[in-house]
Specification:
Layout (H helix, E strand, L loop, with lengths): L6 E5 L8 E5 L8 H19 L11 E8 L2 E7 L15 E3 L5 E3 L1 E6 L4 E5 L8
Length: 129
């Protein structure tokens, strides 16, 4: 952890010695002051859920399951807990790459939030892999 600047390690007890939480502290010059509150809320919810059994605080984020190319698009499936993917906000931040392995920003052009998949496309990538 010493090799990564501005990272802290926290433990929570009572669930086992392997339960470790990593907390990234962003310096102010990163322009992420708002993210500190979000991170704090997520860590608080994690403690309430995992340590104290308050399961009304969801903490499990969708995890990558598979990606299947289909022409100029790619379908990305997730393992999602509870109610699939959250549609309270636009789902963004994806990138796709083609045969040249250069990543480009991708837009969500299709979604099934209950079956937990998105379909991505980027005008810069003819055939995503």
């Amino acid at each position: 952890m010493e090799a990564i600047p501005d990272i802290q390690r926290g433990h929570h007890f009572g669930r086992g010695e392997d339960d470790i939480c990593l907390l990234v502290i962003y310096p102010d010059h990163f322009g992420r002051m708002n993210e500190k509150r979000t991170i704090g809320n997520r860590l608080g919810n994690l403690a309430l859920n995992r340590t104290y059994g308050h399961t009304q605080f969801p903490v499990d984020a969708p995890r990558f399951k598979s990606a299947v190319p289909d022409g100029d698009k790619i379908r990305v499936d997730f393992v999602a807990h509870r109610n699939g993917l959250c549609r309270n906000y636009d789902i963004e931040g994806f990138e796709v790459a083609g045969e040249d392995k250069v990543f480009h920003p991708a837009k969500v052009v299709g979604i099934d939030d209950q079956k937990a998949y998105v379909i991505l496309s980027s005008p810069e990538v003819v055939a995503p892999l």
